[in-house]
Amino acid sequence: MSIALFIFLAIIDWRVKMSDKQNLFLLKIISISSLVLSVLSLGLSIASVVEVKTHTCEPVEIVTETTTVPETTTIPETTTVESETTTKKVEPTTVKTEPTTHKTVQPRPMNIIEDEIELLAWVMVAEAEGTSEYCQRLVIDTILNRVDSDEFPDTITGVVYDKGQFDVMTNGRLYRCEVTDDARRLVREELESRTNSDVLYFRDSYYHSFGTPVTNTSNMYFSK
Fold this sequence. Notes:
Number of strands: 3
Distance between the termini: 146 Å
Number of helices: 6
Number of domains: 2
CATH architecture of the largest domain: Orthogonal Bundle
Oligomer: single chain
Largest sheet: 3 strands, antiparallel
CATH superfamily of the largest domain: Cell wall hydrolase SleB, domain 1
């Protein structure tokens, strides 16, 4: 480009010294020269672009070798366990069961006061009024046997007032009955010699679900 500029300036200087006709001719030459130079410049530019594109780095193909590792098949070891069978002889255990027997209450001397005789006769009348004399004696014996037993209170008063034992003590019937001389006599005779020393429970119509049945009379069922 500097060479072209130099030539252009030289031509201008030379043009000043020429005539008009020569100048017109010269202008045509200069125009053509400029056009040629432009074409050449454009060609150089295109050649540069092509060269740049030509020198563009081509992609490098990277080849990766894949190494295939063969799978290792592990064969499990077979362990044989020898099992010894132990035969243990189990001897049957025999449990000796002794039959349960109810301990008979042994009568013992009682220091009975008149108030307790009266109370016992009163309860007997309330529980067994209208029944046979034998049934009335068994009601008296039930209370006396409880006094002798370790499972109940050791006094007539304690047995009679033991919670939940005699319904007549709570339902009001006791206070609707009167004690007779015959009732007192039966109590005294049972104190001297009991008709039955086993009975501990009684009820009407059927035996209790607990205890062992002993006898029934006048629709009263006695157990021990």
